[in-house]
Write a structure and sequence with these properties.
Elements (H helix, E strand, L loop, with lengths): L5 E6 L4 H12 L3 E7 L8 H4 L13 H8 L3 E4 L6 H10 L3 E4 L6 H14 L3 E3 L5 H14 L4 E8 L9 H14 L19 E3 L2 E7 L5 E9 L2 E7 L8 H11 L5 E3 L6
Parallel strand pairs: 1-2, 1-3, 3-4, 4-5, 5-11, 6-8
Antiparallel strand pairs: 6-9, 7-8, 9-10
Helix pairs in contact: 1-8, 4-5, 6-7
């Protein structure tokens, strides 16, 4: 019924992921787009960027004014690590709940967001990965880590991804270490002829980042034991795979409190 839909503002609406989010919200029967923000589309009707979008929604280049004008219940953010914290703070200060898929937030940033959620009594969901399959991959990797002593992560993303390693890789390593209740064994190479060739390292897990055209967001977890290797892999063929998780978060966000980190917490 009119007036019962969840009203949504989308930041990064002109980006590769943002366009899929706009299309997903358009198709959701219980949601309504009331605002869009992206400097790349400033002044353009959102319908010029994504066919089917409301014709009366014009893309803004300034989040604070867009929040004030559109009065959304929820902000969905898929932007850039350089601006995501500012965007979250602007939304929470305006009393707008946040669903955030932008990665690159540090532990200190998350503490800032958590305190602001409490202060403003406004919730926020931040997920390194909104894919259902990717979250199952992390769950399986954590379960396997309790039975193996060695593991490495190889994550592959498109060439325009701003951060490395991915947030998914980092939280996967964190979950694996927590499940194993000990750091996994770090295999050190005596003669590393090319510095960095063994990748980054966290809790005994080496993480390798690949950036090139052709990939969307893939991750492979490799676990080794005596005489055997186990591979757990998630392949993304389209950014559409993230949309069901984003819509789930939008539907759940108004029912929770504080900061929620990870899609798995609401699945």
């Amino acid at each position: 019924m009119p007036g019962e839909n969840i009203t949504v503002l989308i930041t990064g609406a002109c980006g590769q992921m943002g366009r899929y989010v706009v299309a997903g919200v358009i198709e959701a029967p219980d949601m309504e787009i009331v605002g869009a923000v992206d400097p790349a589309g400033r002044g353009k009707p959102l319908s010029d960027i994504v066919p089917g979008a409301p014709q009366d929604v014009v893309c803004s280049g300034h989040l604070a004014s867009a929040l004030q004008e559109s009065q959304p219940q929820v902000m969905i953010d898929f932007t850039h690590p350089d601006v995501v914290l500012d965007n979250i703070q602007a939304a929470l200060n305006a009393g707008v709940a946040c669903v955030v898929g932008t990665t690159g937030l540090s532990p200190v940033d998350l503490q800032v967001v958590e305190r602001l959620c409490q202060k403003k009594e406004t919730p926020c969901i931040i997920a390194p990965n909104f894919s259902i399959g990717a979250n199952l991959m992390m769950k399986f990797a954590a379960e396997a880590a309790s039975n193996f002593d060695y593991a490495e992560i190889i994550e592959r993303h498109h060439e325009k991804k701003a951060d490395a390693p991915s947030g998914t890789a980092l939280i996967t390593a964190e979950k694996m270490t927590a499940a194993s209740e000990r750091p996994l064994r770090d295999v050190r190479t005596a003669h590393e002829k090319l510095p960095g060739s063994r990748g980054g390292q966290t809790e005994g897990i080496h993480v390798h980042s690949v950036r090139m055209p052709g990939y969307v967001a893939n991750q492979e977890v490799v676990l080794g034991g005596t005489g055997e290797v186990l591979k757990i892999e998630h392949l993304t063929t389209s950014r559409e795979c993230f949309i069901p998780g984003v819509l789930l978060a939008v539907r759940k966000i108004l029912q929770i409190q504080g900061l929620t980190y990870g899609l798995d917490t609401i699945l």
